Task: structure prediction
Amino acid sequence: MISDFRCTFDNAIGISTEITKDLKLSFPDAYMHADTMAKIAHAMKQKEGAAFCMLPFCHTVEAEAMGGIVNMGDGNLGPRAKEYCCTSAAELLELPEIDCSKGRIYEVLKACQRLREQGEHVALMISGPFTIFNVLIDPKYVFKAMRKQPELMQDIFQKIERELLTYIKIAVEYGVDMISYADSSGGVNILGPKMAEQVVMDFTYDFLKKAIELLDGKAMLLLCPKTTLALIGTEKACYVDHELPEVMRYGEACVSLIGQVPVAGQMCIKNIDYQLENKKFREIRLY
Result:
């Protein structure tokens, strides 16, 4: 049975007005260029006392690169879905492949590279299929296809898998040393137990296995706890404890174990102040 993780963070990351005011940047233009994105990410890390920088500032980058229509927002709300570009699940297969050499997705990668060159650890946040679907199509068409057209959905999941694995591969080439994977729109609280289990079997497990192989220790894979609990609940993964030398925050522990632990996911990486009081770090090991 899949347990749910009660998320206390909004789906959109957003940027505090204090940071945007201090940086004196123009929005939404600042969301579209590597240099300004790097400045924002570094300022956020400094203000929050985080162990690493996080990019991008929304969950729309992959969908936009596939043809999604995005409202770029402002300094408070950030980029978000504007209107759907698909009116049927089948149309998702007709969307273009992600091209990481142009557009905002390229600027995100360049911002990551710039921060790494400055000596920062960088977590690139990538979105799962349902978060991507939310930008591209009314979710009701996806749910209908999952019930009535499983073969079509399998093709769609395979397309999303290819796109994300390509993105991850290129991100590592740009120096990213942490990949954060989340799909809050595909949690058990939204899909229900039966469909959530189906998504693990049809997409999540195989995708993550391939991502781990692709990363090959060069970057740590950070899972949203919702994804972790879905894997644990379907008996596709288990926890493996690692002793820490001292009490430390979760993010700091993640950084210290890059190259040693392939997958983490016991807490949300946005919970900056979460302390591992028992000095135990929980690796997520897929079977």
